Amino acid sequence: MVKAASNKITKIKQQFPILQQEVNGKPLVYLDNAATSQKPQSVIDAITNYYTKYNSNIHRGAHYLAEQATIEYENARTKAKEFINAESDMLVNFTKGTTEGINLVAQSFGNTFLEEGDEILLSAMAHHSNLVPWQIIAEQKKCNIKYIPVLEDGTLDMDAFHLLLNKKTKVVSLGYISNALGTINPVEEIIEASHTFGAAVLLDAAQAAPHLKIDVQKLDVDFLAFSGHKMYGPTGIGILYGKEKWLTEMQPYQGGGEMIKEVTLKGTTYNELPFKFEAGTPNICGGIALGAAIDFMNEVGHDFIQKQENEVLAYGTEALSNIKNLHIKGQAKNKAGVLSFIIKDIHPYDIGVLLDKMGIAIRTGHHCCQPLMDAWEIPGTARASLAVYNTKEDIDRLVEGIEKAKIMLQ
C-alpha cells in the first residue's frame, strides 16, 4: 500500500514540468505552495488550447470561436460550483482571486448593509487581504473593527471570540486556514455562533481550497473566496461564492461590460447573477484553466491529497522539531501543510537565501501577516508549505539544508 502511494506520487510529480528541473545545480525542491502552487501539464495545455484553438470574447459573439469559448468558460463555472457544492452556478462569481473577492464583498455588502456604529469582527492572524478591505469600508461607513486574538500555539482565542460577538456585529471575516501558520480555524463553530447574532460570515479559503474538501452548504457560510493559483491553476483567477439573499441585494462596485443589462442616458439596470458582479471582459483563459485545475484535483482525489499532505506534515514536524534552536510557530493540533519556523539568532531571510543555493524554495518574511508577527515580536518566519507532490524526501533535503545553513550562519 505504501509502495502504491509512492508510485502515485511519482506519477503526479511527473505531470509538473517545472519540478523536473535543477536550480543552482540541485534537483528542485519546491516548498512555497502557500504562495503559489505549480501547474500540471493539463492546466498548461488548457491555456495553450484556448489561445491556439478558440481565443475569443464570450457571451456576445455569434461565431464559432465565441460560442466555443463561452461553453468552456461556463463549464468551468459549473466545475467550480460542484467543487464547493454551491446551490447554483449563479452564486459562483469569477474574480481575479481571493483578494478581489474580499474587496468585492467589503465594498458591495458594506455599502449596502453597513451603518455607522456597526461592528466588523476579524482575526488577528488574518492575511492583509482580509484586513485592509475591511479597514477601508469601516472608515468609509464609520464602523468599528474588533479582532479575535491569537493564542501562543497559533490558534484563535475562541473564548474571546464569543465575548466579542454581539448584536452590533454585522460581518465576521477570517481565514479558513492560516497562510502563515497552517492553523485550520474552527469555522463551523464561528459560522453557527455568528448567525445567532445575524452576522454574515466570509471565509478566506485561499489556503483551504488546495487542501480540504469544501462544502459551502454544509458550512452554511455566507461568502467564500479562493484563488486558482494556489490550487494548481493559473494566476489572476478566483472564485467568490455568496448566498443568493446577499448577492441579490448587494450593489455592484464595478461597472461596465458583462454586469450591464441595459444602459440609457438616464441610468443603468444591472445584469442577473452571476454576471452582475463580473464587470468587463473576464480572464477567460484563466477561468477555463481553473476548470482544468479542478479536474486535476478531482482526478487525484481530495482524500488522497489530504492524506498525503498530512503524512508529510507529520514527518516534517518531527524532523524540524529535532533541529537544535529551531522553533515551529503554529502548533495547532488541527493544521494543514505549513511548517513555519524561526531559528535562534538567525534571520529567516538568511536561511531562505542559503536554502535557495541548495535548490530548495521556501518563503521568508511576515507572509502578509504583519500584525501577527508584531504580536509575537518577531520579524517573520521561514515557511515551508506543502502540496500533493511533496514527499518525505523533500523534507529530508530541507532538514539537511537547514543544518548546513546553520553551520554557515552561526
What top-tier CATH class of the largest domain fits best?
Alpha Beta
CATH topology of the largest domain: Aspartate Aminotransferase, domain 2
Within CATH, the superfamily of the largest domain carries the name: Type I PLP-dependent aspartate aminotransferase-like (Major domain)
Helix share bin: 40-55%
| Low-confidence sequence ranges | none
Structural class: alpha/beta
How are strands sequenced across the largest beta sheet? Answer: 4-10-9-8-7-5-6
Rg is 22 Å
Q: Would you count the extended β strands for me?
A: 17
**Biggest sheet descriptor:** 7 strands, mixed
Number of domains: 2
Count of DSSP H/I helices: 14
Give average pLDDT, whole number: 95
What would you call the shape?
Answer: globular
Strand content of the residues, in percent?
15-25%
Summarize this, please?
This protein has 410 residues and is α/β, with parallel strands linked by helices. The chain has helices spanning 2-13, 41-53, 64-84, 98-113, 132-141, 158-164, 187-196, 216-219, 244-249, 284-300, 302-321, 348-357, 370-375, 392-409, and strands spanning 22-23, 26-27, 29-30, 92-95, 119-123, 144-148, 169-175, 200-204, 223-227, 238-242, 260-264, 267-270, 326-329, 338-343, 360-361, 363-365, 381-385. The protein folds into 2 domains: 2-36 and 301-409, Alpha-Beta Complex (Aspartate Aminotransferase, domain 1); 45-298, Type I PLP-dependent aspartate aminotransferase-like (Major domain) (Aspartate Aminotransferase, domain 2), CATH 3.40.640.10.
